[in-house]
Hints:
Layout (H helix, E strand, L loop, with lengths): L3 E2 L4 E7 L6 H9 L3 E3 L4 E3 L6 E7 L11 H10 L7 E9 L6 H15 L7 E6 L13 E6 L4 E2 L2 E2 L10 H21 L4 E2 L21 H8 L5 H29 L1
Parallel strand pairs: 1-11
Antiparallel strand pairs: 2-6, 3-4, 5-7, 6-8, 7-8, 9-10
Helix pairs in contact: 3-4
Amino acid sequence: MVITLSNYHFEATVISRGKGRSLAKSLNYITGERVRDSYLGKTYYSKRDDVLMQKIYLPENVPTHFNNLQSLCDEMDKCEKRCDARTARAFVGSLPNELPYDSLEHIVSFFIKECFTSRGICAIAAIHEGRNDADPSKNNPHVHIITATRTADENGFSRNKCREYDNKEYLRYWRKQWELAQNRAYSHNGRDERVSCKSYKDRDIIKLKPIRHRSRIDWQKELEGLNTLKDDINRAIKKARQRKAERERDELSRQRSR
């Protein structure tokens, strides 16, 4: 079997009042649902038409009202008193365009259970279609995940934050689990593709820049026939990758012919 490496993207950030980020606004952005910020007294109404799935994932035995997006948002905000508090963690992960929708949902569910709900952490996830009508092979399905910074049980959220998650070893762990979840789905679908969370340096791929993440606005501009600087940069990066791959294939052929 010839293994083909597909694109891998996973990033983790914090939602911090000190950096001007609102938990409610972030939840509205990923879900397209109306969400009120009880701390700021603002309501966010932006709608989306590209949400394939949105779901709240909860540990066992948490209060039943945590199943409601607004209630969960209020409880997460209520835990934090400081004006510069970190109210949540946010993750973005690319999903395989080659796999059917149910496999994408399984990837997300498997990852969240392994990394969060089994450890008492609540999570909200939304899969975005990343649709490219001009060329479906360039669809960019991805998931946004927002998690609490505290564990929860039947009494609600803990008084103490999970500060150990600030450690870089957890970022490495989450990245590895995102790799495993996708490769598990590829295998279950009988596909040869795989992803790797390793950096180019760790894979002995030198001086190849990563493809830059494209926002929803970038996709809209492409559909309108407009070019962006990010598109030009990505095209140059892809050409450099293709040239390097061709050189590696030529070198491999020469070695085999000796």
